[in-house]
Amino acid sequence: MREARHIKKIEDAEAGRQRNQRLSALVKKKVASVSYPLQQIKITYANQTKGKSYTDEEDRFLLCELAKYGVGKEDTPDKIKADINASPLFLFNWFAKSRVRLTSRGY
């Protein structure tokens, strides 16, 4: 019984790792598909939300950062947060700078 639980955990972790690799490859492909990703990437949103927190330009920046650091890595949100704080794009965006965790954005 215990072995089955351990095997299930290992299989779940492996599936998650494969999913993250697949997502990383898709993000890198999307960013590499255009010459100027910070200006040219077209992002299609699944559902439009009222009072959207990030602009399209900021979303493109986050997508480029995600392509640089990878999906699902433990330190990716911290690295992206540091880049947000250093970027002039977010200079006066106190909402983005004050986010404690970027993982709510799916990183």
Characteristics of this structure?
Arc Repressor Mutant, subunit A; single chain; 0% strand; 61% helix; elongated; 107 residues; 5 helices; mainly alpha
Tell the overall outline. elongated
Approximate helicity band:
55-70%
How far apart, in Å, are the first and last alpha carbons?
34 Å
Strand content: under 5%
What is the name of the CATH architecture? Orthogonal Bundle
Annotated CATH topology: Arc Repressor Mutant, subunit A
Full CATH superfamily name: Homeodomain-like
Number of domains: 1
User: Which consecutive residue ranges, at least 5 long each, have pLDDT under 50?
Assistant: none
Number of strands: 0
Query: Average pLDDT, to the nearest integer?
Result: 85
The CATH C-level name is: Mainly Alpha
Please write the string of helix (H) and strand (E) elements.
HHHHH
Put simply, the count of helices is 5
Biggest β-sheet, characterized? none
What class, by secondary structure content? Answer: mainly alpha
Output the radius of gyration: 16 Å
Walk me through the structure:
The model has no long low-confidence stretch (mean pLDDT 85). This protein has one domain (2-105): Arc Repressor Mutant, subunit A (Orthogonal Bundle). It is mainly α. Helices cover 61% and strands 0% of the residues. It is built from 5 helices and no strands. InterPro entries: Homeodomain-like_sf, SLIDE. Residues 5-99 form the SLIDE domain. GO terms for molecular function: DNA binding. This is SLIDE domain-containing protein.
